[in-house]
Amino acid sequence: MKEMVLNKFTEIYGDADGAGVYFAPGRVNMIGEHTDYNGGHVFPCALTIGTYAAVKKRTDRKLRFYSMNFESLGIVESSLDDLTPSDKAGWTNYPKGVMWAFAGRGMKMDCGLDIVLNGNIPNGSGLSSSASLEVLTGYYLKDLYGFEVTNVDLAKIGQYSENNFNGMNCGIMDQFASAMGKKDHAIFLDTADLSYQYAPLVLDGAKIVVTNSNVKHSLVNSEYNVRRSECEKALEELQTVVKINGLGDLTEEEFEAHKSAIKDEVRVKRAKHAVYENQRTIRAVEALKKNDLKLFGELMNASHVSLRDDYQVSCEEIDVLVEEAWKVDGVIGSRITGGGFGGCTVSIVKDDAVEQFKEKVGAAYKERVGKTADFYVVEIGDGPRKM
Fold first, then answer.
1. Which of 65, 93, 120, 258 sits at a 20 to 30 Å CA gap from 84?
2. 384 found inside a domain
3. Half-sphere exposure of 173 (CA within 13 A, CB side)
4. What backbone torsions phi and psi does residue 62 show, to the nearest 5 degrees?
5. Alpha carbon distance 215, 90 (integer Å)
């Protein structure tokens, strides 16, 4: 991939001498969905797939972007004097948003860049191509301009830019997973205070299989921001009867004791998911520490049911993939992963059942919804780096 982006850089811009090549990973979340903006726990891991960039400084203030994933768009030109979001800018709003966020923190670029990107995260899959791009941008800015930022800072800046430049009211999980990834480990992150620990995720005799529904979702235009506002309102109502900073502060018992303070049935369901999912995530990590994969899988399954029924962020195609996965012998657990409204499922599948899983789930999906699913047996990788 390094040679590929450098060759394309030479083809597009004429000369790759002095260009650096950088990588930032995508992520899959094993459990803990829609808890990150509710002050709860998440359990994602970085993947070995992600986004690559060849980047070279210019002598003027011009920015030139080229994506090998969107070659029909050609070179998209901008300037350090035009770091404003626009529909016309398309995908370049993500790196421009990070540059804008750096500048807002006093870290201003003194010259422009030529950039070639290539990602091997399927677009719209829910494996965080946008967070990967944001962390990648922050990492090469840090390297090229000598900005003093930690990888945790890169996660915070990526989330801030997506919230305030791109208008997507996401939590910090995706950017944190990309920035802080560690090979063969998932990250048990408390989003209330960003305390975290690495938990080994070496699954003896099993694999992580991501299944892409090939239903594209655009979270900015979806119900995502609506869910967040519903949870914020439910939190306000609960705070009239109990002292909490976020829904993640409550146990299931405490929620059941105080839920009557929430004056809307839909908001009750949203808040219930946030509370119960957080507790599931805590229990799932404990199960993993005890090597209890069976319980971990059961908690994954329960997570999907909650996301489908209480949080209502699934869709017919994803539900079919999960239902069919549950029927296959050797599947330890399966659930929707990511923001929802399409994208992917994540399953833990015993080694000797992986091929049967792909065959059976793929055939049933084709028969029931008329679409083709793609399967990736994924590996857990490290965070961003210069190559």
1. 120
2. no
3. 33
4. -80, 145
5. 20
Kindly state whether residues 17 and 70 are assigned to the same domain. yes
- Reduced to 3 states (helix: H, G, I; strand: E, B; else coil), residue 247 is helix
Closest CA to 247 of 30, 301, 169, 259: 259
Let me know: does 51 contact 136? Beta carbons within 8 Å: yes
Other CB atoms within a 10 A radius of the CB of residue 135 amount to 36
Range of the domain at 235: 206-378
Please state, for a pLDDT cut of 70, what percent of the chain lies above it. Answer: 98
Q: Longest C-alpha distance within the chain, in Å?
A: 67
Last residue of one domain, picked from the residues 201, 231, 264? 201
In a domain, 386, yes or no: no
Instruction: Kindly report the pTM of this predicted structure.
Output: 0.89
Residues marked as catalytic: 174
Structural domain count of the chain: 2
Model confidence at 128, pLDDT cuts 50, 70, 90, reads: confident
Alpha helix ranges (H) inside 290-339? 293-309, 316-327
